[in-house]
Amino acid sequence: MKLYQLTIHEARARLVAGEISAVELTEAVQARIMAVDNDVKAYLTLTPEEALAQARVADERRATGEDTPLLGIPLAIKDLLCTAGVPTTCGSRILENFSPPYDATVIARLKAAGAVLLGKTNMDEFAMGSSTENSAFFTTRNPWDLDRVPGGSSGGSAAAVAADECVGALGTDTGGSVRQPASLCGVVGLKPTYGRVSRYGLVAFASSLDQVGVLAKDVADAAILLQVIAGHDAHDSTSLDVPVPEYSAALSGDVQGVRVGVPREYFIEGMQPEVEAAVRAAVDRLADLGAQVMEVGLPHTEYAVPVYYLIAPAEASANLARYDGVRYALRVDDGGLGAMYKVTRGQGFGPEVKRRIMLGTYALSAGYYDAYYLKAQKVRTLVRADFDAAFEQVDVIVAPTCPTTAFRIGEKTDDPLQMYLSDVFTLSMNLAGICGLSLPCGFDTGNLPIGLQVMGPALGEQQVLRVAHAYEQATDWHTRRPPL
Amino acid sequence: MKLSQEQVQHIADLARLALSDEEKALYQEQLSAILEYFERLQELDTAAIPPTATVLPLRNVMRADEPRPPFSRDDILANAPAAEDGCFKVPAVL
């Protein structure tokens, strides 16, 4: 096994035992990036010197007997998270030259835990998209098939993990942006409960839905990363001030008696038959392991797409008002102040961002607010109530993460509604603010990964990790690597 | 729900977006199709359902009103397209 293929817990064991140094590990991962990233195109920015300096510091700290959870572990960061002095573009021309004066809280926590930061990963512009095709810079490719998308919006982070171009990564998930690319790239992607992880320094898209998540090579690594980033932050008034449990303790391998719900609404016409078969087989596997499987109903699932695509663009239209050519990066001058705003924004934002700003502005505008925005907020209450009722009967809900495996680059770019509909299985979780993850549960005949989504109630990360880990330990999907 | 050209222009003005004629025509068509799909929300009777603006139980989070070190002015202005005398500089308003 190559050094760059190690998981966090495997690398940690070798670092602790003194078998490898953080510098060796970092150099191995950097060499891997040099070897494959011309094909995968996962990274927007690399910080090789800074990473090696952090690795040297990690080795020095370890030599003095220090040991922190991520000491010397090389990670990748989605370019939506602020990194002090390192460009943070959000995949947008409008922020092409933006370098934040501070670290996001999650970045500060990773650094405090000793992590080595390799660089910033590609994404759909302002996290709006499901394929990275909306990046203003380039499209990341799926390591399993370079003609296909890696998913999005955290497609760069998912592809980097799948291609062993980092040991783990951070992403963000507003409507599935961690889980969907994890599913399409065959890695583990965890979206924590809304409020579990600080959003300070996460560039805002839809503030009632955004959450930082992790992308990892296995479930144990996801638990390690969550442990480091979870917790209250006075800088984020929406962060929950509740104790953080020991997530690794949930990885017992035992699901005896755990109640697993299967929602009938997540097996729909038009989904890829191989996806349904793989997910059904995974459910059977959990039953074999002792879980108590039952059907549950989430009857408002079909309304999640319109609810999400009204609420998220409405919030985005307000959040993105700050890009006005005054305080950050791009300005296009064209006469007076009013014209400067319009021309800067017209040229600085890409087509999907403008589409969503238009949609959100319309939904909030006089005469349409009640019919669209308020209506969507009311139906959001019904979507939440579905989950509340289901979690009275079961401990976790399992379902497909996506209706299909990775689609071809360019296949859906002409039809935004079709692209939105591909998010049908991930949006509801954000609307309800609950937690969940995607992990590999098989491959289709084209050797493309299939994702299993495990959902838990608010602050139910432990039971989600427990079930996902038990399934993972009983299978070997997570050990497969793309043919790069 | 078919949006008119005038509505598309009105929304773009509200959002402070300069759009080309091609963009306006494209968004007119695409937003109309998206809004037509979204009409299915009207099937649901939500008269008695309260709206969800946030999933959190938190309201009005307070903190002690104590001075803390601010960002340096130079660091903040470093990202501005134009600055002068420690201020953001903008084109003439009038």
Q: Could you tell me which chain pair has the largest interface and how many residues each side has?
A: A-B, 72 and 52 residues
Characterize the largest beta sheet of chain A: strand count, sense, and whether it forms a barrel: 11 strands, mixed
Strand content of chain A: 5-15%
Strand proportion of chain B, as a percent range, falls in: under 5%
Q: Structural class, judged by helices and strands of chain A? A: alpha/beta
The portion of residues assigned to helices of chain B is: 25-40%
**Unreliable stretches of chain A:** none
| Distance between the ends of chain B | 39 Å
How many strands, which pairing sense, and closed or not: the largest β-sheet of chain B? 2 strands, antiparallel
Average of the residue pLDDT scores of chain B: 94
Instruction: Tell me the overall shape of chain A.
Output: globular
- Work out the radius of gyration of chain A: 21 Å
> What do the pLDDT scores of chain A average to?
97
In the predicted model, the low-confidence regions of chain B spanning at least 5 consecutive residues are none
Q: What is the second-level CATH architecture of the domain at 5-43 in chain B?
A: Orthogonal Bundle
**Percent helix among the residues of chain A?**
25-40%
Secondary structure tally, helices of chain B: 3
Give the helix/strand class of chain B. mainly alpha
Span between termini of chain A = 15 Å
**What is the 3D form of chain B?**
flat
At a glance:
The complex is a heterodimer of chains A (484) and B (94). With 484 residues, chain A is α/β, with parallel strands linked by helices.
Question: Could you explain how this protein is built, in words?
Answer:
- The complex is a heterodimer of chains A (484) and B (94).
- Chain A contains 15 helices and eleven strands.
- Chain A has 484 residues and is of the alpha/beta class.
- Chain A has an eleven-stranded mixed β-sheet, sandwiched between helices.
- The longest helix of chain A is centred in the last third of the chain and has 25 residues, at 369-393.
- The two termini of chain A are 15 Å apart.
- Chain B is flat and about 55 Å long.
- With 94 residues, chain B is mostly helical.
- The longest helix of chain B has 18 residues, at 21-38.
- Chain B has a domain at 5-43: Histone, subunit A (Orthogonal Bundle).
- Chain B has three helices and two strands, in the order αααββ.
- At the A-B interface, helix 9, helix 10, helix 11, helix 12 and helix 13 of A face helix 1 and helix 2 of B.
